[in-house]
Amino acid sequence: MNKSIRAKVASKYLACALLIAGASACDKKGFSYDNIVADDGTEYLITDSVTLNMSTVYLDSIPTSALGVALCGTNNDPVFGKISATSYWQVKAFSGTTIPDLAVYDSMVLMLHPARGVYGDTLLKQHVEVYRVTEEIKKPSTNTYLYSNYSFATESTPLGSREMITRPYWDTVYKVRLSDALGKEFFTLSKNKSQTITDQTRFLEYFRGLALKPGANSQIITPYPVGDSLNLRMYYHTDGSQINQTYADFAVYNPASSTSVQFNHIDFTRPPGSPLTNLSATNKSLPSTSSGNKVFVQPLTHLIARIDMPYLRTFTQYHDYTKIMRATLTVRPERLTYVYPYTLPANLALCEINSANVITDTLTSSLTGAVQYGNLVTDLVYNVNTAYTYDITNYCIAEINSSDATSRGLALVPPRSTGLTHFTRAILGDVQHPTNRVEVKIYYLRYK
């Protein structure tokens, strides 16, 4: 039956407008039909006029630990506002080779390896400062993660700082020179094999950790992979000169990815007059009609997009038998909002979200069964054909059969591995947007 149906659809190029204009479930107005009827009385129809409500949703808490990326810097985004990132972490105890008795301390530096995905113009200055943390970095007993609004006390004076132009395509490492007083202290303890620096528990009591904060002149936010960044390196030499200099490393303390307490703290201030200023922990939804016919996605500043089709549950009430064969969703970023230095998320996962704006599940394809990430196509010439596309067949069928308790909306959310490690962002048009409109198409059968 399905193959026959598809053949008929393909041969007839069938089109029909089904307007779902706001009727309640018991009021069967708001639909218009342009029927094409097969010999057996079956109608093959398509509608692209389903009522869509879009909104920007504010998420309460953003987990930023156990991601393997440290974020640091400040960027003034004209749409999302002034955003700053600070990274906190614990340091691994000394476990290197024995330091010779005649060794002499030289210096201590923090090694930073910049990654691609800088937030802002890389021609602008990066200014970082390194601080000693003075309280234990730990998760609350009931939490699995540390969140972006958490912070821990530090000393008031930085151990070291550096200003530079970040060139992630060219430079592999930046070294931030740290306090010699701290370096010599580490050196003496390491040389004497003191348990204060060799035993992890004692070391964390002595040295709580480090924070990498943006300095006053920072203009961009840079990601640093934790695997090879945030490494304290203590240089020393042994022969009366520095020709044969060697070093000992103090890496990030990361006993297991699930227990890592390295995390990123995020601050943001929305631009004056922006509709985003209306969003907060107490006002969690902003309709697209109140924000220029668009919605905003940037999880690190608590924003995701929501789509609702409020009258979908009435879809089958207008004939004895109606069957959805396929349904697609296409969302389009607003033109000129993803030109350098700002970039779109490479992946936007399609999820189900309940009435309390809690994401309940990811939505899989009816054809492959795989989680959907939008298959982004980017139009950098005209900026009008850039789009994410999704198969929402299973979602539409489920919604038609849902109750008030089981009904769900759709959410567009970058995956945790990328959406919470970089400041990519998306500005998506709604159905009334002048150039980049969201679109739903539903292909269905109706038996007379």
TrEMBL record:
Protein name: DUF4270 family protein
Signal peptide extent: 1-25
Signal recorded as keyword: yes
Organism this protein belongs to: Chitinophaga tropicalis
Keywords assigned: Signal
